Amino acid sequence: MSSPDADPLAGRIFTIRGQRVIMDADLARLYGVSTSRFNEAFKRNRSRFPDDFVFQVNRVEAGALRSQIATLEEGRSADTGRGRHRKYLPWVFTEHGAVMAANILRSHKATAMSVYVVRAFIRMKGELMTSAVIFKRLAEIDKKLVTHDVILRDIYEKLRPLLMPPPEPPRKEMGFHTGIKRLKPSR
To answer: Domain ranges in the chain?
Structure first.
């Protein structure tokens, strides 16, 4: 498996609104165009992108994304503060939207990278499926442990009286005893 440094999509696929998505700026960088040019091509071909392929994040989601990633575009000056934040809310693309975006760009790099993007989504889906299987198995083990715990507690409660020391036999009274039982005086 490749190292995270060699993978340009490492840490760039997020889960928003229950869908795995990639941001417009990350796709633009991957396809070798500026974010503004990428968004222009997307808006010219908006009819190719149904709502399950692409959506625009709201301010809360954008703030959460901003805290996770650096949003300063390459080539912009960090000293002047220009380009530090986006003017518009970002668009995010699902797996199918990312492939469709490669089709509207029509460059050789975009075509080659669309295959790469699909494979990244497939790899992530596989990792999530593996995690789901592991969590299901852990739940089964937990259920068995709870059942075994109840059974062991029941066995312990049944064995507990047997583990207690036997009661002491009654002690004989001190002194001389004739062995004749006294009769109680009648009244």
So the answer is: 13-124
Please report the pLDDT score of residue 111 as a whole number: 67
- Going by C-alpha positions, the residue among 148, 158, 11, 19 that lies closest to residue 94 is 19
Nearest residue to 23 via CA among 13, 10, 8 = 13
Q: Are 55 and 17 in contact (CB under 8 A)?
A: yes
pLDDT tens for 67-87 read 665 544 444 444 444 555 567
Give the whole-angstrom CA distance, residue 104 versus residue 121: 20
Confirm if 24 and 35 have CB atoms less than 8 A apart: yes
DSSP 12: T
**Rg, the chain, Cα only:** 37
Between 71 and 134, the more confident residue is: 134
CA 81, 34, 15, 47 torsion-angle sign:
positive
Q: Which long-range contacts (CB under 8 A, 24 or more apart) does 28-35 make?
A: 29/74, 30/113, 30/116, 30/117, 31/101, 31/102, 31/105, 31/107, 31/109, 31/110, 31/113, 32/107, 32/109, 32/110, 32/113, 33/105, 33/107, 33/110, 34/73, 35/73
Q: Which residues are CB-contacts of 45 (< 8 A; sequence separation ≥ 6)?
A: 104
The residues that bridge with 13 in the sheet, in sequence order, are: 22
- Give the pairing of strands 13-16 and 19-23: antiparallel
